[in-house]
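Appendix B. One record, verbatim.
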Amino acid sequence: MLGAYDVPCFIADFSRIVGLSLSGRCAIASVDSVAGTCGMGNLRVAPDSRLAASKWGARVDNSGVKTQPTGSRRIDRRTIVKGAAWSIPVIAASAASPAFAASTQCPTPTLPWDVAITGGCQIDFWGAGQALPGFTVTSAGTKDANGCCLNVAPDSPLTITETAQGVWHIDIPDIGGLLYAAWTVAPLGGIALAAPFEAWAFAYAAALVAALIIPSQLAGYGPYLSAQNWVKPTSIGQFLGFSVTPQKVGSGFSQVLRVNVTFSFSRQLTVNGMPSCSQTGWGYLGGVVTPSPSDFLGPLTSIPLFGAAISSAAGTFTPDLTLTASGAWTDANPGNNIASIGNQILAPGACQ
């Protein structure tokens, strides 16, 4: 028998927003639908400030659905409260209706479990009608006519590895191949060019990883999900992979030195206690703002004779950033345990 329970509705924390008054309520209308939203009013954006959000709870019992909004609250700009944007759909997908639960006993689940990862523009459940880039984890299942989930739940915590991969290149005019030779041919030696290019590439790659931190914190994480946040690398050895390689492209007056950069960096997430016929997830609120390449030219300007030309070429590239979430488990369908999202989704405003 399903007793009374609280259905929390969370609003994630922002930075750079001040003077936000929050009011609203969340309510579960039935086993398969959600009614109500978390309202957001009196929004004024200002630089260099912070916002915290309050919670609303909806209390559901066997007699029906009730809501208990806690009212409006003026936000202290110095306070930050973390939240999750995924709570409402999880409750809607996994909770039985009170009237049904009072009279029906579900059979013991026997069907195998299947947990899938999907990526894309996920629904923002704040009631703002906005989507955000991110990943959804679905513990799939089949329900009988009474709404009982017939699939067993995973019997142990599930580990997800999220990997960020960055790729970019720059082309530098190299008539006669002098720069390529200075990098690759002895006795000129590769150190004169390799070292500053490696320092430049590392600085930008580390900044690109750091750009993931704030939007992932703002979007929050769903129930059953815990995560290490992204951490800005402080050395090349902390990357899973990192390479800076020269390539000769073209010939004669059109010849260029192409510098190719690739890196990968990861973090771990854990799903624990997630029932079948439910969902959770995480996202990147507002998208990922990639750093400006022109802010990282310092190591290249020190290259003798060619520093100005190299810096000009290195100040205009656009990185290709891809996030891949991969589950380390074996279930009924191992083929759906991985998903990726890229620049076209991660860019600010792409999911609106």
